[in-house]
Amino acid sequence: QVQLVESGGGLVQAGGSLRLSCAASGRTFSIYAMGWFRKAPGKEREFVAAFSWSTSSISYADSVKGRFTISRDNAKNMVYLQMNNLEPEDTAVYYCAAGRGTSSYAYWGQGTQVTVSS
Bigger pLDDT: 53 or 113? Predict the structure, then answer.
């Protein structure tokens, strides 16, 4: 019903920046919230950032506050994650998610690799 495709990952040195994109297609009218998660080797999937249209709210994990910014282009059904001042600890596969709320994500993208070198 909803398809999500991430792009924009790559290799960057510490202190650099990347901008991730997530394209949503299908029944996008059913989406009320979207977010970004990441999975690093040997670690559990963790929350990164999210926004909700229903509450007009944006939230970030403490580890990325001040460095990452989530945004969207409603007309294009696109969401973005601007990542600045990247750290090696940010290395992970980043996933875009969508659903009816920030606690009920039903759709997930395939992920895009972000690697930050020292």
Answer: 113
Residues 110/6, Cβ–Cβ less than 8 Å = yes
| DSSP class of 57 | E
Q: Which two tokens stand for residue 66?
A: 């001040």
19: left (phi over 0), alpha (psi -120 to 50) or beta: beta
pLDDT in tens, 17-67: 999 999 999 998 888 899 999 999 999 999 999 999 888 899 999 999 999
- CB atoms < 10 A from the CB of 26, how many? 14
For 108, other C-beta atoms within 10 Å of its C-beta total 15
**β-sheet bridge partners, residue 24:** 4
Report how far residue 23's alpha carbon sits from residue 37's, in angstroms, rounded to the nearest whole number: 15
